[in-house]
Design brief:
Blueprint: E1 3-8, H1 16-26, E2 29-32, E3 41-45, E4 48-52, E5 64-67, E6 72-73, H2 75-87, E7 93-97, E8 101-102, H3 105-118, H4 130-139, H5 145-148, H6 151-171, H7 180-194, E9 198-199, H8 201-210, E10 215-218, H9 244-247, E11 258-264, E12 267-269, H10 282-291, E13 303-305, E14 307-308, H11 309-319, E15 323-327, E16 337-346, E17 349-351, H12 358-363, E18 365-372, H13 388-401, E19 405-409, E20 417-419
Parallel strand pairs: 1-10, 1-11, 2-5, 2-10, 5-7, 6-8, 7-9, 11-15, 14-16, 15-19
Antiparallel strand pairs: 3-4, 12-13, 16-17, 16-18, 19-20
Helix pairs in contact: 3-4, 6-7
The protein binds inosinic acid.
Length: about 425
């Protein structure tokens, strides 16, 4: 398949890293199409561990790596990640869209201040300036990568934007003074250091696809954090759904061949917002401990719960998922009973569609189907060797969603995987 889109079907952290890393090896090019350094994944290569927040996963394999126009780039983070690669003796084949927006220092300050002002209503953002940067993109106050290499145009833009940002900082009580000359110097330094990578990536990507090269579109976060389809406002500010791969890269939707959805065998979320199947008992502790459910970017403990098939069915629909990789099945090992939520009850009525309204979602109570647990799936590499109860679980999920499960992950390492069961 020349153009494969990999997307998360829950609230992020579905274990996309391992699956994308596998696909990245086969691909000629890996492209990120949304988000920024709010994402995070760990890649183990050559016995070394790398933590990336911004670079596409294929970069470590010296594949062509693209940061599409839909991404927001913190140049300081990008330069740090590139320097770490250099120290490891890896030459990045980077292409950064000239249309990608730049996270400026004031975006980070605003992210923190807005969260503080929201108090116990906060979104629980990563405070990396993601939301304020996308907000500026839509408000037409953004600085783009191409501005970094155009000192004159940049100065004009800063003169237009800075007074507005200063007024906002002052109004929010943030004691920071913006200075056009300082920001200009910072941006032009970034421009000089990144110049060799900044280009019209729509040309590069479309030419690759024309030549039938394999391109992996690597989604960050997940469907339920999507700005349109997620649990708004407890979402990120971009479109992690498969459609974002087209708008975030300048590749037409008809050029995208297939969508691989990543679904964790249970549910997690970081940050705030309703979560119908959340567990606050021993089973929840089991998932946190066995699944090592702590954020890669912020280190926060993730909230855990049973697999929510109402939400997953919705995610399969809005992403047009062709096949699923079911991850972290082994985390459910050792439980007497495993549960899947197949419908909700809301205000005394059965509900089998995921609602847009958060107040409705927060009143939804899960209706569970209980299934027999199993002893161990850890490290199993063939479908036939899975305990019968685990196979029944996989088959029930696939049947409920109406989508084939083509990959099952039974442990963190590459080998602990069942391909095409
Ligand atoms: P932001 O993306 O930093 O604006 O945060 C908005 C929401 O998305 C918060 O609930 C974050 O915890 C969540 N979020 C952002 N990136 C990730 C991720 O990579 N995994 C899981 N949650 C994320």
């Amino acid at each position: 398949m020349p153009a494969v889109v990999v997307v998360g079907l829950q609230w992020g952290d579905e274990g996309k890293g391992k699956i994308t890393d596998f696909w990245a090896e086969k691909a000629d090019c890996v492209v990120r199409f949304q988000g920024g350094n709010n994402a995070g994944h760990t890649v183990i290569a050559g016995g070394k561990k790398y933590k990336f927040h911004l670079l596409p996963s294929g970069v470590i394999r010296e594949k062509e790596a693209v940061i599409g126009n839909g991404v927001v780039v913190d140049p300081e983070v990008l330069l740090e990640e590139l320097a770490a690669l250099g120290q490891a003796g890896i030459t990045p084949h980077m292409h950064i869209s000239d249309r990608a927006h730049v996270i400026m220092p004031y975006h980070r300050w605003l992210d923190g201040a807005e969260e503080n002002l929201l108090g116990n209503q906060k979104i629980g953002t990563t405070r990396r300036g993601i939301g304020p940067c996308y907000a500026d993109k839509i408000s037409r106050f953004g600085i783009r990568m191409d501005d970094l290499t155009d000192p004159e145009g940049l100065r004009e833009k800063l003169h237009r934007i800075v007074p507005i940002k200063q007024a906002l900082l002052d109004a929010l009580g943030i004691e920071k003074k913006l200075n056009v000359d300082d920001l200009h110097a910072l941006c032009t330094r970034w421009g000089t250091e990144l110049q060799e990578y900044i280009e019209d990536t729509t040309l590069f990507l479309n030419a690759l696809l024309e030549r039938k090269k394999t391109v992996l579109f690597e989604g960050a976060q997940g469907c339920l954090l999507d700005i349109d389809f997620g649990t708004y406002p407890y979402v990120t500010s971009s479109n992690p759904v498969a459609g974002g791969a087209a708008t975030g890269t300048g590749v037409g939707p008809r050029r995208l061949d297939s969508v691989l959805g990543i679904l964790k065998a249970y549910t997690t979320r970081v940050g705030e917002g309703p979560f119908p199947t959340e567990l606050r008992d021993e089973a929840g502790d089991h998932l946190v401990d066995r699944g090592q459910e702590y954020g890669t970017t912020t280190g926060r403990k993730r909230r855990c719960g049973w697999l929510d098939l109402v939400a997953a069915r919705y995610a399969c629909r809005v992403n047009g998922v062709d096949e699923i990789a079911l991850t972290k099945l082994d985390v459910l090992d050792g439980l007497d009973t495993v549960r899947v939520c197949t419908t909700y009850t809301c205000d005394g009525k059965k509900r089998d569609q995921f609602p847009a309204s958060l107040s409705v979602l927060s009143r939804c109570r899960p209706h569970y189907e209980d299934m027999e647990g199993w002893n161990s799936t850890a490290g199993i590499t063939s479908y036939e060797k899975l305990p019968a109860a685990a196979r029944r679980y996989v088959e029930r999920v696939s049947q409920h969603l109406g989508v084939p499960i083509s990959v099952i992950s039974t442990g963190p390492s590459r080998e602990e995987t069942i391909w095409h069961p």
